[in-house]
């Protein structure tokens, strides 16, 4: 393999024959196998960089996570580096008029760190995080539910107990025949991040929609999680590219977006970045299937994925109708349900999502109508403790709090 890689590189830059001999010796002595070529020690790359001519060849997307910072192949005219080193050398390449040559992937080489997912850690045990964890445990995976302290963990345990009963009440296949009980036994709990992720094959992050919070979480995760661990974000509003550099493993980072009520609205939107390794993408597709989800493969990054790209305009239109005095929530919802056959109208969805969430999103939008809607929510509902279905009252009143009943989109 080393000879193949180096000959391909040498052919690309038309090196002389004596370079091939050096490159082959280097490959045999210093190389470590990667899915797309060979990884070499970074110090040699830096020494080669000092030469009069350098050609940078990005071998793959796996190198930065698997083998530190750089890949290198041949010395002299050719230096092979990974994505993290390529950017550092780009200025020198431009100033020297050097070439960028891409080596195609080797389809026959498997990722040595890619293993079947067995152990899953879910970061965040709120409404959706607990659903993701329970759904995963229900399908036989070992799950660690992580949150910030013991008090929150105790609240999570109550939420999981509620979900176990919901699966039975809503006749999820197998739930009443021991499935719910088995799911509870598959879940362990931790408020120590290092302990929570020490054996994880996959970490699903469901922390608040704040880039700074996510930066802090992923920076710490990068230090604590094993090299094999795939990181997946459930973020609804942030693109994975905005977070990938925090992870220390952009090739093993992906978006895995769930809808609320995962046991019935069982879509799993899967979206990578340009750095996400194809093998990682496929592994997450397979994982989604194995946990009873329908994988929705997103071809390229798009804010809102598919679900929220469709849902959010509906909710925005409904809020505008209310702010402009066109119609009251009940009439808007009635029109939507009758005309489309949908089970819920937009204001019913607002109630299930939670009016505090709707307020936070609207408040961040500078549009005057969105500002007016956020003020309306605060004055008429939030300040009076009416936060939606979870508190028993929002746009509508609910006889019983619906703590696990959530809308199709978050």
The CA-CA distance between the termini, in Å, is: 48 Å
Instruction: Assign the CATH architecture of the largest domain.
Output: 3-Layer(aba) Sandwich
CATH class of the largest domain: Alpha Beta
Elements, N to C (H/E): HHEEHEHEHEHEHHEHEHEHEEHEHHHHH
**Secondary-structure class:** alpha/beta
How many H/I helical runs?
17
Number of strands: 12
Tell me the domain tally. Answer: 3
Major sheet characteristics: 8 strands, mixed
CATH superfamily of the largest domain: NAD(P)-binding Rossmann-like Domain
Can you give the helix content as a percent range? 40-55%
Low confidence ranges: 1-107, 402-410
From the alpha carbons, calculate the radius of gyration and give it in angstroms: 25 Å
β-sheet strand percentage: 5-15%
Descriptive notes:
The chain has 410 residues and is of the alpha/beta class. The protein has three domains: 2-96, no CATH class; 119-297, Rossmann fold (3-Layer(aba) Sandwich), CATH 3.40.50.720; 307-391, N-(1-d-carboxylethyl)-l-norvaline Dehydrogenase, domain 2, CATH 1.10.1040.10. 47% of the residues lie in helices and 11% in strands. The strands form three sheets. The chain has an eight-stranded mixed β-sheet. Strand 5, helix 6 (127-138) and strand 6 (142-146) form a beta-alpha-beta unit. The chain is globular. The relative contact order is 0.08.
């Amino acid at each position: 393999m080393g000879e193949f890689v180096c000959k391909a590189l040498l052919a690309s830059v038309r090196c002389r024959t004596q370079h091939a001999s050096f490159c082959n010796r280097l490959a045999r002595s210093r190389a470590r196998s990667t899915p797309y070529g060979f990884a070499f020690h970074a110090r040699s790359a830096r020494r080669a960089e000092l030469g009069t001519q350098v050609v940078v060849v990005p071998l793959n997307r796996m190198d930065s996570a698997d083998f530190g910072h750089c890949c290198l192949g041949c010395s002299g005219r050719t230096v092979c580096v990974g994505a993290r080193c390529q950017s550092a050398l780009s200025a020198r390449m431009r100033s020297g008029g050097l070439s960028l040559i891409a080596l195609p992937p080797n389809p026959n080489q498997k990722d040595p760190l890619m293993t079947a997912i067995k152990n899953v850690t879910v970061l965040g045990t709120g409404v959706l995080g607990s659903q993701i964890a329970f759904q995963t445990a229900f399908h036989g995976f070992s799950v660690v539910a992580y949150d910030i302290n013991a008090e929150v963990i105790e609240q999570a345990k109550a939420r999981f107990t509620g979900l176990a009963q919901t699966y039975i009440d809503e006749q999820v296949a197998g739930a009443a025949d021991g499935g719910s009980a088995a799911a509870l036994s598959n879940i362990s709990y931790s408020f120590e991040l290092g302990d929570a992720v020490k054996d994880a094959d996959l970490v699903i992050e469901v922390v608040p929609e704040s880039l700074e919070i996510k930066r802090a979480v992923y920076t710490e995760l990068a230090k604590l999680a094993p090299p094999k661990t795939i990181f997946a974000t459930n973020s609804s509003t942030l693109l994975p590219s905005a977070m990938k550099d925090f992870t220390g493993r952009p090739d093993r980072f992906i978006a895995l977006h769930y809808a609320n009520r995962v046991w019935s609205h069982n879509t799993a939107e899967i979206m990578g970045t340009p750095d996400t390794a194809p093998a990682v993408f496929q592994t997450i597709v397979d994982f989604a299937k194995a946990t009873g989800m329908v994988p929705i493969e997103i071809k390229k990054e798009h804010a809102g994925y598919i679900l929220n790209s469709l849902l959010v305009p509906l909710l925005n239109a409904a809020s505008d109708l209310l702010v402009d005095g066109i119609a009251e929530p009940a009439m808007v919802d009635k029109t939507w349900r009758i005309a489309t056959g949908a089970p819920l109208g937009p204001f019913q969805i607002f109630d299930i999502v939670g009016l505090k969430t709707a307020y936070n999103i609207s408040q961040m939008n500078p549009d005057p109508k969105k500002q007016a809607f956020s003020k309306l929510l605060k004055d008429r509902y939030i300040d009076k403790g009416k936060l939606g279905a979870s508190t028993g009252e929002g746009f509508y009143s609910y006889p019983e709090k619906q703590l696990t009943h959530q809308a199709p989109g978050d």
